[in-house]
């Protein structure tokens, strides 16, 4: 609706931009943004305003404020990956997806917080500190939580956003922007989307360019899209998808942006429920929500079948081997020589490298580098890396078989439970948490399939729970159509945040699911 | 003492002659200002991705075909990891698992006993050709305790040509490399000038007794010319033989050739064997090549590489050119080698032949002896010759028409070298070198001489 509002002149891009910027300031305690690009954003908004005045907006995204995860290169704006290694690093180029958004007139408000180098499932392990889930401060959560202390401050029981794209999810969830880019390697867009009650889309591998996305695992990374509703995700997808000559892993086929139909009849649909996703540790609450969702489809006439993805239980270890191996390789370039942090140690090149990398990387990154190098050693390569590649093939084939049997879309939970309080979450280390939390989302990355989190309901603690749909390769249109139908059925409630209310002049909360399309 | 069998294999890196680098669009150029030809990808800026350069693939296919290789229709790229200042990404992209071309051969010729008259043909097997990135250059400034890094060369395309250990000595290796050089230059796939680092050769050397298994081999690096290649290999063979005969052992090590001392010395220890932790390059899909049979009907010609199409367009290789020279002009095989060995000499020869009535078999002598020795004496290339083919042809025509003697011709040539712009005819007239055919004139001259030197004539007659 905000795009319509812009078009009709009910609000101007600069007003919109300024409101978002001041909302960012008043929600600073969320720590969702690492860098706020106030000056450039306002300039972009002004340029957009000119275009609207002339009646020549570039498209639906013209003037729309967006945020970008801080592992995407943005020319002239610091790109840190929440790491000391890249603190102060100003990239000379824009990632393709960033460029595409800017070319459409979008207004880049800033770079969002994440786990360092996107390694983590909490957005708690970056050098700029953890991101707080906006729902921690929502009326819905506060009503349900047992008051622990009488203090007025916002400290006590705030919950995590999930990760690693927590900053982007929080930004969208708290209305400081209308869409955000995240990245998804093992669930890093869908996980925080679920915890923050927003739509998180992981597109098919090869659909959207990775040029300019600082890689974690090149063979699994995709840019992710976070929005407040499925229609918005489709719009952003439409502006981003397509072949990029700068990324040799993007497909050559022409991509046609699509509008989502309003599905009314689901009787021709076949929904698969993979039994292995009833994973150990899945909260009974989420199990119930999942069941209800399956019933929803069935009652509406869809065919709902139980299916099996037998190799699911091997995906964590398989992912661990392949991910750490690629990480070890991708991080080899950070030596302090050409860019980024450089240690003062200058006794020799080797010692400079070692000191730079010790100072620049946190424990999580270093741990994965060491593991990865171990798996890539000549004596281990066959046993670990090659084996893991084979297992990956088996996991991917599980999906192929299921989709070939007539299933259109799979329905699974996105997370094992609702968002954990920060103090609980940090009791276990990053590796343990990632292994636990990624179980429901990883397989889609291994198979390169599109998947989307749709906010479904609130938990007993008043926190968002989302469900995941996994679709066929390059069938985003079908996937999003089903997701949109589901979204309409569940009518997920809007977050009730003080700060948002203060800043709203009818634009944000115009409708229940405040979207921009 | 039992005889020793030396075994020599070669690893040759040839820089691909292309406008831009293997995976990025920055320019390829020799001796540019430091760090002026470096793209974001070359500098390993985070988030950049490799994009394969078509021309580099074509160069590798051409080279593979010229070396009788099987071209792999599907080849793969890998990352080879090690840390070094001139390797910004911390890994090199190469083809370790499945290279672009395998199982070829190279024929080369040697003179026996240094006589050009007896040539023997040998063959060396080509194990494979792989595409890979070149590294940057690092210059160690010990006085200031610093290392200066220039990334201009980082990412330039290389073809690594691996020659099996079928050679036995420095001379064979040198001849094989020379032939490879000529082939690359003829194809245009590499300019292959060793002095500019466009062709780098490492030699693997070992010795053993006949009937016994191969000995431990050493790798010899830092060889900057074909002449030094032969020297380095021969030195290393001798060193190994002496070492073993004195009861020592050969270490599997890397040694550098010191051209000043003429010997090989162990290189700075690389801390034991390196584990390069090879991993498939995830950002590059397998390289698929087509031939006429496998080419899909609706494929855009610009998008694919057709091996057969390239094969049809290969230029004549040196061996073919030599045969043609022998056939067409009746020169000796060893002449054809010299003609091709000198850049531009064959063309020069053919130009002269076109413009003169003198038979090619006679022209060749003037080319190989007079012209070539003069150029060598003054360290000139054929292109820099002050005597052009036309000038030489004019001179030879005078000789052919018997207007001058061959001694006179040599005199004229000596004058022509001065490059003062005079034609042979002018020089002949100036120096009165014409052959006289007029009987009366000759008699007059002889009489005049006799008259002048009466005493000597009388002495002679007595």
Summarize the structure.
The complex is a heterodimer of chains A (517) and B (462). Chain A is an alpha/beta fold and 517 residues long. Chain A has helices at 2-8, 13-26, 38-53, 96-103, 139-144, 166-173, 190-196, 230-240, 284-299, 315-330, 349-360, 363-376, 378-404, 422-425, 430-437, 442-447, 476-490, 498-503, and strands at 33-36, 65-69, 107-112, 179-184, 199-202, 222-227, 270-274, 303-307, 409-413, 451-458, 464-470.
Tally of helical runs of chain A: 18
* Largest sheet geometry of chain B: 9 strands, mixed
Task: Calculate Rg of chain B over CA atoms.
Answer: 29 Å
Order of helices and strands of chain A: HHEHEHEHHEHEEHEHEHHHHEHHHEEHH
CATH H-level superfamily of chain A:
Amidase signature (AS) domain
Chain-averaged pLDDT of chain A: 92
How many structural domains does the protein architecture of chain B include?
2
Tally of helical segments of chain B = 13
Proportion of β residues of chain A? 5-15%
Low-confidence stretches of chain A: 509-517
* General shape of chain B: elongated
Helix content of chain B: 25-40%
Distance from first to last alpha carbon of chain A: 5 Å
Q: Which class of chain A in CATH terms?
A: Alpha Beta
Query: Looking at CATH, which topology of chain A would you report?
Result: Amidase signature (AS) enzymes
Structure commentary:
Chain A: Residues 20-480 form the Amidase domain. Chain A: It holds the Pfam family Amidase. Chain A: This is GATA amidotransferase. Chain A: One of its GO terms (molecular function) is ATP binding. Chain A: InterPro entries: Amidase, Amidase_dom, AS_sf, GatA. Chain B: Belongs to the GatB/GatE family. GatB subfamily. The complex is a heterodimer of chains A (517) and B (462). Chain A has 517 residues and is α/β, with parallel strands linked by helices. Helix content of chain A is 39%, strand content 12%. Chain A has one domain (1-141, 159-314, 389-504): Alpha-Beta Complex (Amidase signature (AS) enzymes). In chain A, α2 (13-26) packs antiparallel against α3 and α10 packs across α13. Chain A has 18 helices and eleven strands. With 462 residues, chain B is α+β, with helices and mostly antiparallel strands. Chain B folds into two domains: 5-288, no CATH class; 318-431, no CATH class. Helices cover 35% and strands 21% of the residues of chain B. Chain B is built from 13 helices and 16 strands. In chain B, the strands form four sheets. Chain B has a nine-stranded mixed sheet. Chain B has a three-stranded antiparallel sheet with strand order 5-4-15, with no helix packed on it. Chain B has a two-stranded antiparallel ribbon with strand order 3-16. In chain B, α9 (389-400) packs antiparallel against α10. The radius of gyration of chain B is 29 Å and the shape is elongated. The chains are: A alpha/beta (517), B alpha+beta (462).
């Amino acid at each position: 609706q905000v795009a319509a509002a812009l078009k009709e002149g009910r609000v101007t891009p600069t007003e919109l931009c300024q409101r978002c910027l001041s909302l960012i300031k008043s929600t600073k305690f969320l720590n969702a943004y690492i860098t706020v690009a106030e000056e450039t954003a306002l300039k972009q908004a002004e340029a957009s305003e000119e275009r609207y005045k002339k009646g020549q907006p570039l498209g639906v995204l013209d003037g729309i404020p967006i945020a970008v995860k801080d592992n995407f290169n943005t020319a002239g704006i610091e790109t840190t990956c929440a790491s000391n290694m890249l603190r102060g690093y100003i990239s000379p180029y824009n990632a393709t997806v960033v460029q595409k958004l800017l070319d459409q007139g979008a207004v880049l408000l800033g770079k969002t917080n994440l786990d360092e180098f996107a390694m983590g499932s909490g957005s708690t392990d970056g050098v700029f500190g953890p991101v707080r889930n906006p729902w921690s401060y929502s009326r819905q959560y506060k009503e349900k939580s047992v008051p622990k202390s009488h203090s007025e401050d916002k400290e006590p029981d705030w919950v995590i956003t999930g990760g690693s794209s927590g900053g982007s999810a929080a930004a969208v969830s708290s209305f400081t922007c209308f869409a955000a880019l995240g990245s998804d390697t093992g669930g890093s867009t869908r996980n925080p989307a679920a915890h923050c009650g927003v739509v998180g889309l992981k597109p098919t591998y090869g659909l959207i360019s990775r040029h300019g996305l600082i890689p974690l695992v090149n063979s699994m990374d995709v840019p992710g899209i976070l929005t407040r509703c499925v229609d918005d995700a489709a719009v952003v997808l439409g502006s981003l998808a397509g072949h990029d000559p700068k990324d040799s892993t993007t497909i050559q086929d022409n991509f046609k942006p699509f509008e989502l139909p309003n599905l009314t009849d689901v009787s021709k649909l076949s929904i698969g429920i993979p039994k292995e996703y009833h994973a150990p540790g899945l909260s009974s609450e989420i199990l119930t929500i999942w069941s209800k969702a399956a019933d929803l489809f069935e009652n509406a006439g869809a065919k709902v079948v139980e299916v099996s993805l037998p190799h699911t239980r091997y995906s964590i270890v398989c992912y661990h081997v392949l991910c750490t191996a690629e990480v070890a390789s991708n991080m080899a370039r950070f030596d302090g020589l050409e860019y980024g942090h450089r240690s003062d140690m200058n006794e020799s090149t080797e010692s400079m490298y070692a000191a730079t990398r010790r100072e620049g990387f946190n424990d999580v990154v270093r741990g994965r580098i060491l593991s990865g190098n171990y798996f890539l050693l000549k004596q281990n390569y066959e046993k670990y890396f090659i084996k893991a590649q084979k297992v990956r093939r088996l996991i991917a084939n599980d999906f192929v078989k299921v989709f070939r049997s007539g299933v259109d879309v799979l329905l699974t939970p996105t997370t094992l439970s609702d968002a954990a309080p920060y103090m609980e979450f940090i009791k276990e280390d990053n590796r343990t948490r990632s292994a636990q939390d990624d179980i429901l989302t990883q397989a889609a990355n291994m198979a390169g399939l599109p998947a989307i989190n749709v906010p479904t309901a609130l938990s007993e603690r008043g926190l968002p729970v989302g469900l995941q749909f996994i679709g066929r390769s390059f069938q985003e249109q079908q996937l999003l159509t089903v997701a949109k139908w589901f979204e309409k059925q569940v009518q997920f409630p809007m977050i009730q945040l003080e700060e948002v209310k203060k800043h709203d002049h009818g634009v944000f909360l115009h409708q229940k699911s405040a979207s921009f399309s | 003492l039992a005889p020793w069998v030396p075994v020599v294999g070669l690893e040759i890196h040839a820089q691909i002659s292309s406008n831009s680098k293997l995976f990025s669009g920055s320019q390829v150029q020799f001796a540019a200002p430091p760090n002026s030809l470096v793209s974001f990808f070359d500098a390993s800026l985070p988030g950049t991705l490799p994009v394969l350069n078509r021309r580099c693939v074509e160069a590798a296919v051409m080279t593979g075909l010229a070396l009788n290789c099987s071209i792999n229709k599907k080849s793969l790229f890998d990352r080879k990891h090690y840390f070094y200042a001139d390797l910004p990404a911390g890994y090199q992209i190469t083809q370790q698992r499945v290279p672009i071309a395998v199982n070829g051969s190279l024929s080369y010729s040697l003179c026996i006993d240094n006589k050009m008259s007896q040539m023997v043909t040998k063959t060396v097997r080509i194990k494979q050709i792989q595409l890979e990135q070149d590294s940057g250059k690092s210059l160690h400034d010990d006085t200031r305790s610093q290392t200066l890094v220039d990334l201009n060369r980082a990412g330039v395309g290389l073809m690594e040509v691996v020659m099996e250990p079928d050679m036995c000595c420095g001379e064979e290796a040198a001849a094989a490399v020379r032939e490879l050089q000529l082939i690359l230059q003829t194809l245009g796939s590499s300019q292959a000038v060793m002095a500019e680092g466009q062709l780098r050769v490492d030699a693997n050397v070992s010795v053993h007794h006949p009937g016994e298994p191969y000995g431990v081999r050493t790798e010899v690096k830092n060889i900057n010319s074909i002449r030094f290649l032969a020297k380095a290999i021969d030195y290393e063979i001798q060193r190994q033989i002496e070492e073993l005969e004195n009861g020592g052992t050969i270490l599997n090590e890397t040694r550098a050739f010191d051209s000043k001392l003429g010997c090989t010395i162990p290189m700075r220890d690389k801390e034991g064997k390196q584990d390069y932790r090879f991993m498939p390059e995830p950002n590059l899909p397998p390289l698929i090549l087509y031939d006429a049979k496998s080419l899909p009907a609706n494929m855009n010609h610009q998008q694919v590489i057709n091996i057969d199409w390239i094969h049809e367009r290969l230029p004549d290789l040196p061996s073919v050119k030599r045969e043609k020279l022998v056939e067409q002009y009746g020169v000796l095989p060893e002449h054809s080698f010299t003609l091709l060995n000198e850049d531009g000499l064959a063309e020069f020869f053919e130009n002269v032949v076109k413009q003169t009535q003198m038979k090619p078999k006679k022209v060749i002598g003037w080319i190989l002896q007079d012209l070539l020795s003069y150029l060598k004496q003054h360290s000139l290339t054929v292109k820099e010759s002050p005597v052009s083919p036309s000038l030489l042809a004019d001179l030879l025509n005078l000789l052919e028409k018997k207007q001058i003697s061959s001694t006179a011709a040599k005199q004229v040539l000596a004058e022509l070298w001065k490059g003062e712009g005079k034609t042979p005819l002018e020089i002949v007239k100036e120096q009165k070198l014409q052959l006289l055919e007029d009987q009366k004139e000759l008699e007059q001259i002889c009489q005049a001489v006799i008259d002048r030197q009466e005493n000597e004539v009388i002495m002679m007659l007595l």
